[in-house]
Amino acid sequence: RSKTPARKTPGKFKQPPKDPVKVFCRLKPLQNDGDISCLMATDTTITLVPPESCLQYRANNYKEYQYVFKQVFSESSKQKEVFDVVALPLVGDLIQGKNGLLFTYGVTGSGKTYTMTGEPNDGGILPRCLDVLFNSISDYQAKKFVFKPDKMNGFEVLSEVEAMLERQRELHGDLATGKNVKTPRRKNSDEEIGFRIPDTTKITNLNDDNTFGVFVTYVEIYNNGIYDLLEDMSDDILRNKYQMLHEANRGDKVYMHPSLRSS
């Protein structure tokens, strides 16, 4: 008689390696020249200490708090320097087919918007990411609607003929449904965009067999509502939505679309 083979204990499931989270810190300049700083910074460390005018400091009864980061950017750090260290590697990974996530956090007034958006003559992380992305894929970018998004985080690949028909529908409107082409509304910021200084960095050594399609979503979450900031709506629709939000909140602070904030 043959013996019953012994059962092998299944090995533990090995989880794939996880990429470590890199945390950067950018110091904001003091608002007034007479303000007293309570921190000491190195390239990777921030130490918080009470000012000399503090009673605890005079009595030598205080604690120092030390925080370690991947890198600390000083008050004099430029937008380009922050972008090249923090975001440029993520754009390179994105072009190579990897996922990436970058987000800023901090108290109100700490400089998050400035770091992410910047100014027309000195862009922040967001516009520089778009500049580098399109600089790099300009020779490999598919024509519009070759990759058609399904608005559910997916897309379908159309033939050249189908994509051309989609482009014609967008340009001339769908005559079958009577939809007309929307005339873009000129926003106040359009004049500033014309004077924006782009980032000229370009990522090379791309695979010649790759073809790229870019889809961008730009939303704002405010008062438990999600708003598409790229949606092109007429002023009448915007005012109606604003009125509905105003009635729903009954006098509370409500979201106001950028095009209405200037009116």
TrEMBL record:
It comes from the Eukaryota. Belongs to the TRAFAC class myosin-kinesin ATPase superfamily. Kinesin family. Residues 20-263 form the Kinesin motor domain. Signal peptide: none annotated. Keywords: ATP-binding, Coiled coil, Cytoplasm, Cytoskeleton, Motor protein, Nucleotide-binding, Phosphoprotein. It is found in: Cytoplasm, Cytoskeleton, Spindle. SMART domains: KISc (SM00129). ATP binds at G106, V107, T108, G109, S110, G111, K112, T113. This is Kinesin motor domain-containing protein. InterPro entries: KIF11-like, Kinesin_motor_dom, Kinesin_motor_dom_sf, P-loop_NTPase.
